[in-house]
Amino acid sequence: MKNKSVALGLLIIVVVSLLTGCMFKKILNAEDFKEHFGALGYTISDSEESEVEADAYLVASKEDVSYKIEYYYFKEEVDAKKAYQHYKENIVKYITTDSNNHETSGAEFTKMVAVSTDEYIIISRVKNTLIFIPTTKEYQNEIDTLLTDIDY
Fold first, then answer.
1. How confident is the model at residue 26 (pLDDT cuts 50, 70, 90)?
2. In 3-state terms, what secondary structure has residue 29?
């Protein structure tokens, strides 16, 4: 009886971890970011100035879209959490009207989606990395697809 209870408990933990993605959340390192977005036609820059201090900061942009995808890598996860908090607290700098903000979090990730009349803003942290994308609602589907592809 005791073995069945232990086995059932382990099975529940594994199923919940698989369903929430907690066990297999993989970060996108700087090289992967360059390769992935470069292959999609984005120009990758490592010379732009970032709003927060990071160990690596990359910006992916295209001439035919008005948004930039900002990628941050930190040696320590606590620094990524601080950067996430910075953008969350300063989201009003990017929003022109009231917004509906939705935050999701787990053991290794936190994600804020802010939607206003005109803007669509994503702040997504996975472990010690962060992606920040301030854009307009017209690019919402495109951004959602891009982030789904990289599991952010």
1. confident
2. coil
